[in-house]
Design brief:
alpha/beta, eight-stranded mixed beta sheet
Length: 319
């Protein structure tokens, strides 16, 4: 479609199409079964559609919102054939994403108005692809000519510290680390200090992903913030929550818990290529009104993409 031309490179669009393939196939298989033998959108079709959306991990509240909007259109138009359902759904989902705080970024850039370094604190439970997202993000920033420093403040897991060091070596960016079982806030302090001293553009701090002790998590994240603010009063400029899209509604639960524990300002939703649960992006964006900034649609560094809602909807509904 010409309307989407120029926003994404051809390669990125192909990666996005491929990454959402399982979600799209599952969704339209279910939708096809829901409308088979039907000629118009009636109450029965809408009931079936509601089930399709919920089982596609769009979420109950967001599903109800979509159904109500379609009901209004059916009532207004008096008659709506099932062949129009794809177009109507596409329009309503695009409209829903447009109403939320998700802004389409052109590329991996940082706000010009912010004094360098731009500090990002990354949060999320273990196993969601948090450290991998940090590594890919670092590579994308570096490819734009930005100077990056990483802080290995997830000090409760040796694997997390080792993994971020490997990413640092692979990408060619410095990693501040004090090893396992050390004070995370001390790592954050040193990372921000190094970023300031070396004139870095971006400092990315990894943090521990533990939800079972929410009070401790909240205290830990607050402490990390306080020590960073000794160098940069506005730090962190961004709190990025990484969620695993393949876990469906469990990702929504994690988002709910982390938004209680800290002020999340942006989301990265990973592993969309290996799942049929990509609908969770729509539900999470709608429920939390926090910008979905990045999505992961594959293993390669470039498969971490800036989220563009129109491109997402286009790939989701592409036949």
């Amino acid at each position: 479609m010409a309307i989407f031309g120029g926003l994404f490179s051809k390669d990125k669009k192909e990666s996005l199409d491929k990454g959402l393939e399982k979600t799209k196939e599952s969704f339209f298989t279910k939708l096809g079964k829901a409308v088979v033998g039907k000629s118009k959108v009636d109450e029965e079709v809408l009931d079936e559609l509601e089930e399709v959306l919920i089982t596609s991990d769009v979420g109950v509240n967001t599903t109800i919102k979509i159904i109500e909007r379609i009901e209004e259109r059916v009532a207004r138009d008096k008659y709506m054939g099932v062949e129009e359902l794809d177009r109507i759904l596409r329009e309503e989902i695009a409209g829903l994403l447009a109403e939320n705080n998700t802004e389409d970024l052109k590329d991996f850039s940082i706000p010009e108005v912010v004094k360098r370094p731009y500090v990002i604190m990354v949060v999320g439970v273990n196993g969601v692809g948090k450290t991998t997202t940090i590594g890919k993000l670092s590579a994308q920033y570096k490819s734009k000519g930005l100077k990056v420093v990483l802080g290995a403040a997830d000090t409760f897991r040796a694997a997390a510290v080792d993994q971020i060091k490997l990413w640092g070596e692979r990408v060619g960016v410095p990693v501040v680390s004090k090893g396992m079982n050390t004070d995370p806030s001390a790592v954050a302090f040193d990372a921000v200090k190094q970023g300031v001293d070396e004139g870095a553009d971006v400092v990315i701090i990894d943090t521990a992903g533990r939800l079972h002790t929410k009070v401790n998590l909240m205290n830990e994240l607050s402490k990390i913030k306080r020590v960073m603010q000794k160098f940069i009063p506005e730090a962190p400029h961004e709190v990025l929550l990484v969620l695993d899209g393949s876990t469906g509604q469990n990702a929504s639960i994690q988002a709910r818990e982390f938004t209680k524990a800290t002020e999340v300002s942006a989301l990265a939703i990973t592993k969309l290529d290996g799942t049929a649960k990509g609908g969770v992006v729509i539900g999470i964006s709608d429920e939390f009104k926090i910008p979905v900034k990045y999505i992961g649609v594959g293993e390669k560094v470039e498969d971490l993409q800036v989220f563009n809602k129109m491109e997402f909807v286009d790939s989701f509904f592409k036949k």
